[in-house]
Amino acid sequence: AQSVTQLGSHVSVSEGALVLLRCNYSSSVPPYLFWYVQYPNQGLQLLLKYTSAATLVKGINGFEAEFKKSETSFHLTKPSAHMSDAAEYFCAVSESNSGYALNFGKGTSLLVTP
Amino acid sequence: GAVVSQHPSRVICKSGTSVKIECRSLDFQATTMFWYRQFPKQSLMLMATSNEGSKATYEQGVEKDKFLINHASLTLSTLTVTSAHPEDSSFYICSASRRQVDYGYTFGSGTRLTVV
Questions:
Q1: Looking at the DSSP assignment, which residues form a beta bridge with residue A65?
Q2: Count of C-beta atoms within a 10 Å radius of residue A87
Q3: What is the maximum alpha-carbon separation in chain B?
Q4: Test mutation, A38, A45, A93, A95, chain B, max B CBs within 10 A
Q5: Which residues of B touch A105 (CB under 8 A)?
Q6: Percent of chain B whose predicted confidence (pLDDT) is above 70
Q7: Closest by alpha carbon to A44, among B7, B93, B69?
Q8: Using an 8 Å Cβ cutoff, are B9 and B113 in contact?
Q9: Of A58 and B31, which is predicted with more confidence?
Q10: Contact state of A90 with B109 under an 8 Å Cβ cutoff
């Protein structure tokens, strides 16, 4: 069964600093990996996804993530944090063995300070 | 494109009553929809997977008689919380699969259910 682990439930960065949110996955078959952002009392917005094409995936709002099979990781980065990036971020995995249902990590709350 | 409309966004109901939540895919056919539950400050937990025209598949620990899921058409799935109790208060989110298109998922905006 597939799963993801997000290291760090809370991450705080200064405005303009590098954002790094960590995600490691466990999957018995090649996975599809996703990063979503959620603002309070709202649904989820897709930032980017990996579906076995290029290992470096570029998403919206300047975010990108790199799929590293050897490290079973899919960390999310952004070169320069903006105040509007403060939100909850979820890494998720899906695979054929589970009917392609998304399995979410516990989430990382990103705080951006002035 | 690829919009999923979820209604209502907020609902307050009395204990013992039933509440129906609708999830509609507006511009694509959703052969598979997923229903999630999210408690405050927690992640999304998959409740069930529904395929159009067939019975939903529930995750372990989810009461299928309490959380009724219907997926009668390619554009509409509903979740009915029957005989709701305060512990059912939560944020419910639906998601439509676009696997055949781009391996993506489109999420509804969620429903905040409060049972009093």
A1: A57, A76
A2: 19
A3: 41
A4: A38
A5: 43
A6: 95
A7: B93
A8: no
A9: A58
A10: no
Distance CA A55, CA B36 (A): 29
Nearest CB to B34 within list A41, A46, A101:
A101
User: Three-state SS across chain A?
Assistant: CCEEEEECCEEEEECCCCEEEEEEEECCCCCEEEEEEECCCCCEEEEEEECCCCCEEECHHHCEEEEECCCCEEEEEECCCCHHHCEEEEEEEECHHHCCCCEECCCEEEEEEC
Contacts of B103 in chain A (CB under 8 A): 32, 49, 51, 94
What pLDDT does residue B55 have? 87
Q: Is the pLDDT of residue A71 over 80?
A: yes
Residue entry with tokens 């008689």: B65
B112 touching chain A per CB within 8 A: yes
What digits encode the pLDDT tens for the residues B27-83?
888 888 999 999 888 899 999 999 888 889 999 999 999 999 998 888 999 999 999
- Structure tokens given for A54: 């290029």
State the CB neighbour count (10 A cutoff) for residue A88: 18
Question: In Å, how far is B67's CA from the nearest CA of chain A?
Answer: 18
Contact B103 A106 (CB under 8 A): no
Residues of A whose CB is below 8 A from B42: 106-107
Q: What's the token pair of residue A84?
A: 């509007």
